[in-house]
Specification:
- By secondary structure, the chain is mostly helical.
- The chain has one domain.
- Helix content is about 75%, strand content about 0%.
- The protein has six helices and no strands.
- Helix 3 packs across helix 5.
- The chain is flat and about 60 Å long.
């Protein structure tokens, strides 16, 4: 049963990729920054580093509609934040070159 579900989801994703090719740059940016998104969401949701996460405040107190709305907002916020990762990395590299005295 699970293999069938996985094949259906994979088929839909392949269809979407074929239908909307080439993919918008914003979508590709989110795909390139999955590690940032994973680390940030574990910190925010589960408190991976600081021990304080959103799950400690709400646990199972949200109804399904609130949880769905929160998930949509959360995904949108991280997709928006992923757009700033590459420009920030470029600024960081530029600053490090300047700070170390290496000029190119």
């Amino acid at each position: 049963m699970r293999v069938g579900e996985m094949l259906l989801v994979l088929g839909v994703l392949i269809w979407i990729e074929k239908r909307f090719h080439p993919l918008p740059a914003r979508f590709l940016t989110v795909g390139r920054n999955t590690f940032f998104i994973y680390v940030a969401h574990t910190i925010v949701l589960y408190g991976a580093i600081f021990g304080i996460g959103l799950n400690q405040f709400w646990k199972e107190a949200l109804n399904p509609w609130q949880a769905a709305l929160g998930a949509v907002i959360f995904c949108g916020a991280f997709a928006w934040a992923a757009q700033g990762v590459e420009p920030a990395a470029k600024r960081w590299k530029k600053w490090r070159k300047r700070a170390s005295g290496v000029h190119s």
